[in-house]
Amino acid sequence: MLKLTPGQIMDTCASCHARRVDLTGDFKPGDAFLDHFDLATVDHGDDFYPDGQIRDEDYEYSAFYGSKMREAGVTCVDCHPRALHMPRQDGNEICLRCHAGGFMKAPIIRPEEHSHRLAGGKGDNCIDCHMPVTKYMQRHARHDHGFTIPDPLLTQKVGIPNACNRCHADKDSAWSLTAVGKWYGPKMERPTRQRTEWIALARQGDVTARGPLLAMLNDEVNSYWQTVAIGLSDQWIGDATVSEAVARCLTNRDPLVRANAVRDLEPLVETIGSPMAGRIRPLLADPSRNVRISAAWALRAELDTNSPAGRELLHYFDFNADQPAGQLQAGALYFSRNVMPSTLEHFQKAVVWDAQSAPIRHQFAIVLSAANRNQEAIEQLEAACRLAPQEGEYVYALGLAWNEAGNSAKSIEALERAVRLDPRNNRAWYNLGLARNGAGQMDAALEALNRAETLEPTSPRIPYARATILAKAGRSREARSAAQLALTLDPNFVEAAQLLQALPSGNN
């Protein structure tokens, strides 16, 4: 009989009890979870609430991975007997095995004092508040395994459900907030509350969340939340401070962190000799297959597909070849190697297999545009916009495609719609400014560029674009100021330096 360690048992449980991507199709009990799967975590989507609570059908493992319980060393078998899904003990007994002083890392809890409920009454059970239930498919009641602390303030601020109002549905969050404030006072001002607020801001693209996310990479002790910070930092990965902070995570002790750091840095691996490619290359021999596959994918343009990591990547593709996403990935591999016939074949098959997928059509449009088939790219983007009319990113891409096709009116129309759908898309504002300027709408162009600059104040290209427009209009003083700002942000910005030198001095 196979004897497994508690950690191996937890990985075996997770093979079913996790929202994940299957990398191999051949997991066996006792194998490492991250050798065969990629775990879903809190990210830009809405599968999870910003505090880590399950929202969509997320099962148990992701929430548990982010919990203080797992970080302290608790595993599935500490609460569940092997081969059974039921808890070892009823009521609070199972929690008090540790929280009555039986485990040195666990704070001592006296249930009646803590819950302010009578023993045995509703709300007295630890799990009522710290493992709230979400019902899936109208029949499957599932406990959240994140062991989160109910916080009505976060309900008010970012719309996260709290266990108080899940039970007291006749009351509002203000009532619950008053109660927890009276009972727990300053204890509610905890780091996890701040973390949740930062994550909610990052999901909205708010640049003020960037600094706190980078602080999480250094200060957060739970590797799950380091992974979350990495994933949400991808929108600023072009910033050198962000990319360097993420790159330092390539040597993190947790393969989940390392794999996600590689994925975040992938856009910076532009050429075979790029510095970031050199930092990722050693991870082709990482102990974890998840990390090796992530590194192989990031380095796909140069990858030796006969190498161990190359063969693992191809095995992953083969396993997913019967799915549209698998065809998409195979096409992307050929695309990175500039093998356009095979690229188009795989992307076309992915679209045929899932004609209702807006993301696949969006990706196909990028490939068609690279193949100079602009009209077909526009058709795919228009289809994506019909399928997902509220997705500003697709409308933004459509605006760029119309610009490539030389239709400035349609480009401006699409870009204006993109910023209405997502007012925080600095790239859309920037390109709208350029498009408006090309159409002779100088004041409107400067307005759009100012919006872009407010959203992305560290980008030198935006003030440089303003400087060129102002210089052409003869507004030399304002142009000098904008060009100087671009140079301050990037002292090596040659074009900005040349423009500044060419501008006349004076008060114009």
Q: What is shown here, in short?
A:
56% of the residues lie in helices and 3% in strands. It has 508 residues and is mainly α.
Helix content range of the residues, please?
55-70%
Which parts are unreliable, with pLDDT below 50 for 5 consecutive residues or more? Answer: none
Q: Classify the beta-strand content into a percent band.
A: under 5%
Number of helices: 29
Tell me the structural class: mainly alpha
- The number of E-state strands comes to 4
Strand order of the largest sheet: 1-2
Shape: globular
Largest sheet: 2 strands, antiparallel
Q: What does this entry look like structurally?
A:
The longest helix is centred in the last third of the chain and has 14 residues, at 340-353. It is built from 29 helices and four strands. It is globular, with a radius of gyration of 26 Å. The protein has helices spanning 6-14, 61-65, 68-71, 76-79, 93-99, 111-115, 126-130, 152-158, 163-167, 173-184, 191-203, 210-219, 223-232, 240-247, 255-265, 275-280, 289-298, 308-319, 324-336, 340-353, 358-370, 374-387, 392-404, 408-421, 426-438, 442-455, 461-472, 476-489, 494-502; strands at 20-22, 37-39, 133-136, 140-143. Among the domains are: 1-39, no CATH class; 68-144, no CATH class; 458-508, no CATH class. A hairpin with a 3-residue loop joins strand 3 (133-136) and strand 4. With 508 residues, the chain is an all-alpha fold.
